[in-house]
Amino acid sequence: xxxxxxxxxxxxxxxxxxxxxxxxxxxxxxxxxxxxxxxxxxxxxxxxxxxxxxxxxxxxxxxxxxxxxxxxxxxxxxxxxxxxxxxxxxxxxxxxxxxxxxxxxxxxxxxxxxxxxxxxxxxxxxxxxxxxxxxxxxxxxxxxxxxxxxxxxxxxxxxxxxxxxxxxxxxxxxxxxxxxxxxxxxxxxxxxxxxxxxxxxxxxxxxxxxxxxxxxxxxxxxxxxxxxxxxxxxxxxxxxxxxxxxxxxxxxxxxxxxxxxxxxxxxxxxxxxxxxxxxxxxxxxxxxxxxxxxxxxxxxxxxxxxxxxxxxxxxxxxxxxxxxxxxxxxxxxxxxxxxxxxxxxxxxxxxxxxxxxxxxxxxxxxxxxxxxxxxxxxxxxxxxxxxxxxxxxxxxxxxxxxxxxxxxxxxxxxxxxxxxxxxxxxxxxxxxxxxxxxxxxxxxxxxxxxxxxxxxxxxxxxxxxxxxxxxxxxxxxxxxxxxxxxxxxxxxxxxxxxxxxxxxxxxxxxxxxxxxxxxxxxxxxxxxxxxxxxxxxxxxxxxxxxxxxxxxxxxxxxxxxxxxxxxxxxxxxxxxxxxxxxxxxxxxxxxxxxxxxxxxxxxxxxxxxxxxxxxxxxxxxxxxxxxxxxxxxxxx
Amino acid sequence: xxxxxxxxxxxxxxxxxxxxxxxxxxxxxxxxxxxxxxxxxxxxxxxxxxxxxxxxxxxxxxxxxxxxxxxxxxxxxxxxxxxxxxxxxxxxxxxxxxxxxxxxxxxxxxxxxxxxxxxxxxxxxxxxxxxxxxxxxxxxxxxxxxxxxxxxxxxxxxxxxxxxxxxxxxxxxxxxxxxxxxxxxxxxxxxxxxxxxxxxxxxxxxxxxxxxxxx
Lengths: 636, 215
Fold this sequence. Notes:
The complex is a heterodimer of chains A (636) and B (215).
Chain A: H1 9-14, E1 41-46, E2 49-54, H2 55-59, E3 75-76, E4 81-84, H3 88-100, H4 111-121, H5 130-154, H6 167-176, H7 182-204, E5 208-209, E6 219-220, H8 221-224, H9 226-250, H10 254-259, H11 261-278, H12 283-295, H13 308-319, H14 321-345, H15 357-368, H16 381-399, H17 402-454, H18 468-484, H19 491-508, H20 528-547, H21 569-574
Parallel strand pairs in A: 1-4
Antiparallel strand pairs in A: 1-2, 3-4, 5-6
Helix pairs in contact in A: 5-17, 6-9, 7-9, 9-11, 11-12, 13-17, 14-15, 14-16, 19-20
Chain B: H1 2-30, H2 38-44, H3 49-62, E1 67-69, H4 70-80, H5 87-97, E2 104-106, H6 107-119, H7 122-133, E3 141-142, H8 143-157, H9 169-181, E4 188-189, H10 191-200, H11 202-207
Antiparallel strand pairs in B: 1-2, 3-4
Function (chain B): May be involved in the calcium-dependent regulation of rhodopsin phosphorylation. Binds three calcium ions.
InterPro entries (chain B): EF-hand-dom_pair (IPR011992), EF_Hand_1_Ca_BS (IPR018247), EF_hand_dom (IPR002048), Recoverin (IPR028846)
Organism (chain B): Pleuronectes platessa
């Protein structure tokens, strides 16, 4: 029931007097209205802009934030008003909804911001008034499409494969996205080249060449150099067949692949050759054979895998199917009408070319598309009049659906451009995020070092400019370390440790702590150079994959027990007991927690600290950035 | 050819006249009605200033033009009775509220009616009810009028009732009513008969508490 009807409720209840004389039973007691009927003005302060409204106005919609007791949470006793830390511009629209009962969508606002405000105030978007509903829906759909595109682009082709993908998956990825590996790129260009060769061969073999000696007529090159062309054709078809079979093998869903447009084109491109091979040199079927050769021209469509523009064109045509259909239908109608008229108008004349209505179709089409070959021309006056009407209307009928198709094409083209731009920007954004993450990692590691140096409760020389947030955050990470009895460190130290570990690993195997990744541990897997390179590559891979999804990700790596007594680096080689590293850990990353800190400054080489008795391997070889405040952290 | 031009001009002429009437209609709806001053209304009704203010704010919000026509009235009233068809009863109510009989209820009518019903004396309320039942305003309620009213009330119940409406329940209801009310058995009710009979009806007197706490 519309809330405005609440105003009329007293009236409706009063009008019940009309029932009283007729009632056979006593009326029930009316409900006691506890709330005072006197209206009061409420003050609502939204980020400094004060709004005032009657309490009744807000009570109209009791299932929203402002209409229910939820607003009590925002009541400020000191100023006797409700304070909301939200956008006052948007609040204006929200409040108008209460006043008028209609929610309007401000066109200049971002649709997501508006949605968020609605969600905050507990208003369902469905109540947007009819005047603004269409605009809202369009914008929302556009936004969702854009988001879908973005997520598709994110998790799409550019992300590297998980390391445990099968060769089949890798093959498929190589086919779909040639930029991933050089082999795929090579194959891509080779197929492109062969498509071009094949198409050119098809074209050239019909060109008349000089006839061989002893003959008069011109011969098409195809017959003169028959063998050469046949060999070229065979080579192309072999390559195409090979490619098709590879794609079929690699496709994740073979049925879906076989039904896709590109695969059909592939099949149509190579089938004529094989059919030609198996077909005997029979006169009867040679006609059909000639037809088959025509299908060879479909090889040119294979280029659409190589060209995005072609794909866009195809997609546009598909999406404009209804407009094209309309165009076709209206053209057909007009053609039939005009052809009939012209035929009967020209029927009497001698030697008229309009021999039948289907024959007049040709004239009508040529006239309506303003081609005007002139092979069929009306002679009677009536014929000429209707002919001119035909050509005028042809211009109109064809001009009508064309703008729709054009606008569709431009929209899709721009979408594609945007997708490409997004992908390019994504890389920059990821790089920036990575820098930020590195910054926070090092902040924590620095803090640990300082803490270690200061031995727990240092009397700080100067307190670092760390926010309360950072303090609490580092404390949390510290607690995690204590829980798991491992420590955070960064990748350089880790790989070094790996190196040193392999030396003394064989003897310490028995004392290894068990971890679920321990199974992969063996000394060969800890080969120093390979491990470092692999580790670096995996790091690169996983940071990229980390960029997917939310910004806050906690991939920890921990590989050292804190039970080892403080020791210098040199003594590590000697110490074999209790030293276990998960070197074979296939996926580790540095402890990366990103909080919105500005990216750190340019990295500067910090002077390596002397081997400090830290219960850790935090040798300061980091070439990574850290903030330029060299301060101690007071113990948390 | 002349005939063609002639018909074409005739068409345009018709269109212009219809367009004029549409403009006139728009003009009429744009006009808004303002009630008399707050003091006068306070004097004429039994409401206090605050109550009048609250009532007017709600009224003006719903009807910015200041007047309610019958369609809107029916629509509003129907919202309270979604089960059945409240249009007939709303029609009679509209006529009862529209004391000036000009097809629209203004705020003054609205508030005077409410004042009578909610703050008036018993006699005033009964008079208002009599006025509601007396459809043709001739001072008498006859059986037909009563039947109309009762049917309209039963229509508001809708189809799905328990126990189901079987037979001509409204007619029986009217017969019972007239039996109770019509003292001199002349088939019509006068105002006096109605008032006296109602005052004697204990059930009804107890039900008058309906009007507590409405405003």
